[in-house]
Design brief:
13 helices; four-stranded mixed beta sheet; single chain; mainly alpha; 4 strands; disordered C terminus
């Protein structure tokens, strides 16, 4: 087949990549067989959909690093080409040879793409009809993505396949922050000045503020665990700005399932099947998981936040209460996150943590106090004081809301404010003057029966 030394040499050089691509397609087909076998077990279907998402995202990382293979350091080559190196600025910068650092970030007003959603469509989709991909539209990751979509469409229907696409896009945006900047004829365009490949840097100012605040308590984990991804914002991502060129954090990608053997995957599916068949709760009424907290500190007018509240708390109006409870809840959430980091540091494995996207987050209650360090004990006391402070503000808000509703004769007044803080307040101990019961639940209007008649002709 390869009858010349040069062709044989080229084949041997690319054989590991060819072999990995073949294995990935075999895995997708195996997932298809399992989806058919466990088609009546929803938890198994969800598990396999997650497996396919992780497989496609890792294939994307493989193709990106294969594209820049000549620029990689020898010691970073194996991990990067296996798709285990995160696509974040610090990890990519470390993987590159010295002469190719730092990564060249695309910018300027003449950029063809200025939205992460458009970039995702260009990199992943195939039915948009107006974006050209000559020479790279059949990248292995794109073929795996299309094949996975078609399998889910065939077995679970078009709606389920679209939902799977959306979840992949969400995970991609939340965890892949340094991306190839393509052009019509090339997967990664090169700058005319330096001749370097160009990267799209995805930034989120609210998430960056959150991690900056968290780092005040102590050093952040490097890399950040994949369990953080579900807490990252989905919206308001931007291309790099002069004041924020890149996210200076590395987050471990979700890839636990792709590191399991075929036997372990099948065993997990069987376990899910047994649990589903033996569950006592009616299958149609399974409680939804509570929505995770989002690590996002939005930018607000500094005039209101820099000045302290005027006078005693008993005299605060609704505006002052709203500003102060937002600050107090943000501080409580960041401290809680730092508590989790302290506990994880004591249990951190020496090898890469490929399971962190599925492991439950450590509780921050009173269990295991004997093992707590002095830092944790001090922080625990501060958290108890913070909860008390939040409840005091909430009590004043309760009074303000009741007074305003009575004054203006509007039962739903301030409902939008209560809804804004409800997800965080629900995670705190309930107390007598919680504002959550004041939330007005609107009744769905009764639908009138429609009279059908056949017109006379």
């Amino acid at each position: 087949m390869f009858n010349s030394p040069s062709m044989q040499s080229a084949y041997r050089a690319r054989y590991p990549q060819v072999r990995d691509v073949r294995i990935d397609f075999i895995r997708v087909d195996q997932a298809r067989q399992w989806m058919v076998e466990f088609s009546s077990i929803p938890p198994c279907q969800e598990y396999l959909e997650k497996y396919l998402r992780q497989l496609c995202l890792r294939a994307f990382r493989k193709d990106v690093f294969a594209q820049i293979k000549p620029f990689l350091r020898e010691e970073s080559m194996v991990t990067a080409l296996a798709g285990d190196t995160p696509l974040c600025w610090p990890s990519v910068n470390q993987a590159l040879q010295k002469q190719y650092r730092p990564p060249y970030i695309a910018g300027g007003n003449r950029m063809a793409v200025k939205s992460i959603d458009v970039l995702f469509t260009w990199l992943w989709e195939w039915r948009d009809g107006h974006l050209e991909r000559k020479g790279w539209k059949e990248k292995p990751y794109r073929m795996l993505y299309q094949q996975s979509f078609e399998i889910i469409t065939l077995i679970r229907g078009k709606d389920a396949a679209r939902a799977w696409k959306k979840k992949l896009q969400t995970s991609f945006i939340r965890s892949h922050w340094l991306l190839p900047y393509p052009q019509n004829h090339s997967f990664m365009r090169k700058s005319k000045e330096a001749g370097q490949v160009m990267w799209w840097s995805s930034v989120h100012r609210g998430l960056d503020r959150y991690y900056q605040r968290l780092s005040r308590y102590g050093p952040l984990p490097r890399p950040l665990p994949a369990s953080n991804i579900k807490h990252h914002p989905e919206d308001h991502w931007e291309q790099s700005r002069p004041f924020l060129d890149f996210m200076d954090y590395t987050v471990q990608p979700e890839q636990r399932l792709v590191h399991l053997s075929e036997a372990d995957l099948y065993q997990q599916l069987q376990s899910l099947q047994v649990i589903y068949n033996n569950q006592a709760q009616p299958r149609g009424n399974r409680e939804a998981d509570p929505s995770p907290l989002i690590y996002d500190i939005p930018e607000i007018i500094r005039y209101h936040t820099d000045r302290g509240p005027q006078g005693p708390m008993e005299g605060w109006n609704m505006t002052t209460c709203t500003i102060q409870i937002r600050k107090a809840l943000d501080e409580y959430g960041i401290r809680q996150h730092y508590q989790q980091n302290l506990r994880c540091l004591r249990q951190r494995p020496s090898r890469p943590d490929y399971c962190s996207d599925s492991q439950p987050e450590p509780e921050t209650g009173h269990d295991g106090e004997d093992d707590m360090t002095s830092d944790e004990e001090s922080l625990e006391q501060k958290q108890l004081q913070q909860v008390k402070y939040i409840q005091q503000i909430e009590t004043q808000m309760y009074k303000c809301i009741c007074q305003d509703r009575e004054l203006w004769q509007q039962s739903g007044l301030h409902d939008s404010t209560i809804k804004l803080y409800a997800p965080k307040l629900r995670r705190l101990p309930h107390h007598e003057y919680s504002i959550l019961p004041l939330l007005t639940l609107k009744k769905e209007p009764k639908q009138r029966p429609v009279a059908f008649y056949k017109p006379h002709r």
